[in-house]
Amino acid sequence: MGIKSYSEMVAAIQKLQFQQTKDLPVLDELKIAQEGNISSYYIPFDYVSQNAKVVLVGITPGKTQLFNALSSVQSSLTKGLEQEEVLKMAKNEGAFSGTLRNNLIKLLDHIGLHEKLGITSTASLFDRDAHLVHTTSVLKHPVFINGKDYSGSTPNMLKHPLLREMINAYLMEEIRQLPKAIYIPLGPKVSQVFEYLIQQGLLQDQQVLFGLPHPSGANAERIAYFLGNKARESLSNKTNPDLLDKAKLEILEKLSLNFN
Where does the Uracil-DNA glycosylase-like domain lie (predicted)? Predict the structure, then answer.
């Protein structure tokens, strides 16, 4: 799979007209892959902070994030901004926003990441200290199943040829640019991909902080227990406290190894 870049796609982005509708057919010129009911579209997330010490990794951008990023590029181009600034702004558009971001900050501060980075709170990673973090996805460009956001479950991205090819082409290239960073996979599906990447020799196990609860609002109980805000005896049977305790210990050990 050939890697698509901003320079190849900028002309198509400039011509887009999606003020009236935010449906995928208006983005046909940005489609980079189609196989059966699976489609993928270019998103202008080329910018990589070369000084990043931490990489936060989700599954894939959703439709809202895709249109927000494209709108950001169009707006930046009308202002005459330089390419790096255009891409930086597009990347920051909606990255881990709302409840997701608030929960993520609490989790990262709880494990002491801010202290290891020498900042007062990981909240500043989304503001003045953005150079210390890189945000990405195992499937860098948005993937849709029958036009709907891909959840990471079906098909299995490590077993589906197209999705695995996208991981190999895009995610591996980003990792090669940031070989010494700490990687934080968000959720079990992302963690499975990072286990594969470790097997491939791209990363060391100690670089990957497995087991941090996904910061989604739907994951409130696991987050509350991890943060020490909910007692073990109050948990529902959907939450496994032993797994969370084990994950926290391993995360703290890896942080001390990486920031000694």
Answer: 45-222
The answer to whether 139 and 160 have CB atoms below 8 angstroms apart is no
Rounded-to-integer distance, Cα 194 and Cα 228, Å: 27
Residue spans of alpha helices (H) in the chain: 6-15, 63-78, 83-92, 98-110, 113-117, 161-166, 172-177, 188-199, 220-226, 241-258
Give tens-digit pLDDT for 209-259: 999 999 998 899 999 999 999 999 999 999 999 999 999 999 999 999 988
Mean pLDDT for 163-168 is: 96
Distance CA 42, CA 59 (A): 15
Do the Cβ atoms of 185 and 104 come closer than 8 Å?
Answer: no
3-state secondary structure of 229: coil
Q: How far is CA 171 from CA 55, 149, 165, 167, 213, in A?
A: 11, 19, 10, 5, 22
How many Å apart are CA 173 and CA 37, to the nearest integer? 26
Angle (CA) 14 16 19, round 5°: 120
The CA distance from 240 to 157, in Å, is 26
DSSP per residue over 128-174, as a string?
A: TTGGGEEEEESS-S-EEETTEE--SSSS-TTTSHHHHHHIIIIIHHH
Taking a C-beta distance cutoff of 8 angstroms, is the pair 226, 244 a contact?
yes
- pLDDT (tens digit, 9 = 90+) per residue, 218-232? 899 999 999 999 999
Please state, for a pLDDT cut of 70, what percent of the chain lies above it. Answer: 98
